[in-house]
Design brief:
The protein is an alpha/beta fold and 453 residues long. It is built from 17 helices and 19 strands. A 9-stranded mixed β-sheet has the order 9-10-8-7-6-5-4-1-13, with helices on both faces.
Length: 453
C-alpha cells in the first residue's frame, strides 16, 4: 500500500453494510420464511455447510455487535440444546445423514457451554450431518471462559480450527470496552490446541477502540505475532449506539478519529505482510501457505454468511437463534430473540423470521459482488459468457460511477478487466456497493450503516 494515505481512503468512505452476501440484508421481507425454506432446502445443490449460533456469553463487551444473551444460569443452555435437537430432527433434508464440508459454531460464546454440553451439541448434529474427510470444523472461543477441558473435548470431537476474539492485548484499551482478558491465557490455549492437532488457529483484533494509539496497537500486534496464528481478522469497530444501545457505555471522546483509525489498519497491514501474512479480502490475513491464501492466489476464494472460505457456493444450513441459512436462490433468518426462537421450535411454529427469494438478477449481482470481495477482479468476457450477457452493456450505469476510484488509483478498469489493486483493497466494499441496487434507495428508507473505513 505504498503512498496510500488515510486522507485518500477517507475521501471515498461512506456508510455501507459489511458485505457477507447480497441482496442487502435489511431489504429482506417477513413474507418469506419456513415454507420457502422447506421446499427449497432438499433440492439445493452444491456442498453443504452448517452454522450453529450459540448466543450465550458470561458478560457483554461494550463493543459487541453480535446477537447475544448474557446468561449466568445454566438452564437457558439446556433449553437451547433441547430446542436445537428438535430443530435438527425436523430439517427437511434429502437424506437421513448429509455429508458436510464445514461446521462452524459461532456466537455469542460457544465455549460458554460446558464440555459435556458441547459433546451433546455435536451428537445432535451427528444425527443428520456427517463431516466428509478433511472437513473444516471450527469453533469460536473466549479465552477467559475456555478451559483446558474445553480444548481437549473439542479436539476429541474433531474440531480442527479454533478462533478467538481477543480484540486487543492492551489492558487500558480492554478496560475501555469491558473486556476482561489475560494474554498468557491466549498463549496457553493456542499451545494446547496445537499440541492436540488443531491445524488452523485464528485471532480477531479490532481497530478503532477507545484509547487505541499507533504505539499501543503496534504492541498488540507484536504480541499477536509471537503467537503466530494461522489467520487473523482485523475488524473495524463500528460505533453504532443507535443500533446497539450498550455501546453508549463507551466513551466516544476516547475513540480514535477517522484519520487515526485508518492509520491503525494501514499499520496492521504493513506489519503483518512484513511478517509473512497475505492480505485476504478486505480485513483478513493468513500465512502464505494457508488454504485461504492459496485459494485467493488461485482466484478460488469464496464468501458466505460465515465469512471467507475455500469452499465453493452451495448451501449453508443455519441453526439456532438468529442463524441465517443461505441457499443458491434463498436466504432466511431465524427469530433473533431467544425466547421467541425456542418457543417457536418447541411448539412447531414457523421459526424463520424473514428472508428473500433471489431473482436471477439477484444471483447475478451476488456472483459479481463475491468475485470483487474475494478475488478483487472481474473479467468482463468470462463473467458475461458464464451469465449470458454483455457485461459492459448490462452494468453500464455502475461502470460510469467508478470514475473517482479509478482516478485515484484505487481501482483499475482496462482491457476488459475490473481489478482492485493492492492499494485499493481496503475500499473494496465501496466498489461492491456500486453494484447493489438496493443501496440506491433513498437514505431515509434504509438502515443507518457504519462507515466503510
Amino acid at each position: 500500500m505504498d503512498e496510500l494515505s488515510p486522507e485518500l481512503l477517507l475521501r471515498h468512505s461512506r456508510p455501507g453494510p459489511r458485505y457477507t452476501s447480497y441482496p442487502t440484508v435489511p431489504h429482506w421481507t417477513h413474507d418469506v420464511g419456513d415454507a420457502e425454506f422447506t421446499a427449497r432446502l432438499p433440492r439445493a445443490s452444491g456442498p453443504t455447510s452448517v452454522y450453529v449460533h450459540v448466543p450465550f456469553c458470561k458478560e457483554q463487551c461494550s463493543f459487541c455487535g453480535c446477537n447475544m444473551v448474557v446468561a449466568g444460569r445454566r438452564e437457558p443452555g439446556t433449553r437451547s440444546l433441547d430446542a436445537l435437537a428438535r430443530q435438527v430432527a425436523a430439517l427437511p433434508l434429502e437424506a437421513e445423514q448429509v455429508p458436510v464440508q464445514r461446521i462452524h459454531l459461532g456466537g455469542g460464546t460457544p465455549t460458554w457451554h460446558t464440555p459435556a454440553e458441547l459433546e451433546r451439541l455435536f451428537a445432535i448434529l451427528a444425527t443428520r450431518f456427517r463431516p466428509v474427510p478433511g472437513a473444516e470444523i471450527s469453533v469460536e472461543a473466549d479465552p477467559e471462559v475456555t478451559t483446558d477441558a474445553h480444548v481437549r473435548t473439542l479436539a476429541a470431537l474433531g474440531v480442527n480450527r479454533l478462533s478467538m476474539g481477543v480484540q486487543s492485548f492492551d489492558p487500558e484499551v480492554l478496560a475501555g470496552v469491558n473486556r476482561p482478558q489475560r494474554s498468557h491465557r491466549v498463549f496457553e490455549i493456542m499451545d494446547l490446541a496445537r499440541a492436540l492437532g488443531m491445524h488452523s488457529l485464528n485471532l480477531d483484533l479490532m481497530v478503532g477502540l477507545p484509547r487505541q494509539t499507533p504505539d499501543r496497537f503496534a504492541a498488540t500486534l507484536a504480541t499477536t505475532l509471537k503467537m503466530r496464528p494461522d489467520r487473523l481478522a482485523i475488524f473495524g469497530y463500528a460505533h453504532v449506539p443507535w443500533l446497539k444501545a450498550h455501546q453508549k457505555k463507551i466513551d466516544a471522546a476516547a475513540l480514535p478519529g477517522p484519520v487515526d483509525r485508518v492509520a491503525l489498519f494501514l499499520l496492521a497491514h504493513r506489519l503483518l505482510t512484513e511478517a509473512g501474512y497475505q492480505a485476504i479480502g478486505m480485513d483478513h490475513f493468513a500465512l502464505v501457505d494457508d488454504g485461504l491464501s492459496q485459494a485467493q492466489r488461485a482466484g478460488e476464494l469464496h464468501r458466505n454468511f460465515m465469512g471467507y472460505t475455500t469452499q465453493p457456493g452451495g448451501r449453508l444450513v443455519g441453526l439456532g437463534m438468529s442463524a441465517i441459512s443461505e441457499l443458491p436462490d434463498l436466504y432466511v433468518q431465524q427469530h433473533s430473540k431467544l425466547s421467541t426462537w425456542w418457543k417457536a421450535v418447541e411448539e412447531g411454529a414457523p421459526v424463520q423470521e424473514r428472508g428473500i427469494v433471489l431473482t436471477a438478477e439477484d444471483q447475478l449481482r451476488r456472483d459479481l459482488i463475491n468475485a470483487l470481495m474475494c478475488n478483487f477482479r472481474v473479467d468482463f468476457a468470462a463473467f458475461g459468457q458464464a451469465h449470458g450477457l454483455d457485461f459492459q452493456e448490462h452494468f453500464a450505469l455502475e461502470l460510469s460511477e467508478l470514475g473517482p476510484l479509478i482516478e485515484d488509483g484505487l481501482l483499475e478498469h482496462k482491457d476488459g478487466l475490473l481489478e482492485v489493486p493492492l492499494r485499493g483493497r481496503l475500499l473494496v466494499r465501496n466498489v461492491a456497493m456500486v453494484f447493489d441496487p438496493w443501496l440506491r434507495a433513498p437514505a431515509a428508507a434504509g438502515p443507518r450503516f457504519s462507515q466503510t473505513v
